[in-house]
Amino acid sequence: ALHDRLLPEAARARLHGWREALTVGFDLGRDLPFGILAPQGCAPYGQRLALVSLPSLALGFDYAGRGDVPGGSAKEVVLVVGGDPPPGSPLESFRFDRAERERWLAPFEPSTVEVLEGARATPAALRAVQALLGGARLVHFVAHGTLLPGRESSAALVLPAGRPDEERLLGAEQVARLCVGGLVVLSACSPGRGPARLGDDCLVNLGGAFLAAGARCVVLSRFPVEYHSTLALMEHFHRGLAQGASPAEALRAARARLASEDALAAAHAAAFEVIGLGFDPVFAR
Questions:
Q1: Is pTM beyond 0.85 here?
Q2: Which residue, among 49, 6, 44, has the nearest Cα to 28 in the 3D structure?
Q3: Which pLDDT tens digit goes with each residue over 2-48?
Q4: Which residues are CB-contacts of 21 (< 8 A; sequence separation ≥ 6)?
Q5: Whose CA is closest to 143, among 127, 126, 129?
Q6: 176, 212 in Cβ contact below 8 A?
């Protein structure tokens, strides 16, 4: 019903024959991912179309002018693993075991992969490896997401702490001190959450912060996500990227594959969206 209210007949007829689509602006749908919409009796657009969202045409032209990943690092893929939440937090203990990690990273050549965890994944430690992050084609964070009350940009990731008194939340202010150049994926709850204001570009969140820090494209969710569904989605997503698919096409194919395996997991996967240069392949094959 929401699909029929938001999309006129002419738009639906055009979309029926398309393989990809670019949506510009967030006022109409606000936090609603376009890919979750579906015509009566059909699969959601997120499973049928490679989708990219742009906050505005002006920013789209700005992103399009960005060059390729500058390089300078021997690693193409950097996986940043979050830590357990601080004592007293309502968040559950974070578990991302070796088997899950190996499934995620299996499509990539091991010599091109770097895993940052523990003391190497603190906000301070990330600032010390700018060449590694800036030269990687894919930087993927898997962590708890949280919100910082009273902040304009309130979304943050919970990273490890090297010392008990060390800052462990990676918010927009901390991201501004980083340098990235490729695709950034945020597998966490609500990193795209921000203030809801008409006319706003909806980039007052971690996605906007990473784009401002140089990322060509960001994959994230504006909502809480379910852990096991996200693990399965990103396993398929990584496989598509490694085979040369663009982030938009890799996410579409991953969602379609997940829908054939687990309908509930596919519903959770619909929360993820691609912002920025999402039609450009990350790994040329």
A1: yes
A2: 6
A3: 888 888 899 888 898 899 999 888 666 667 888 999 988 889 999 99
A4: 15, 34, 45, 49, 50, 51, 52
A5: 126
A6: yes
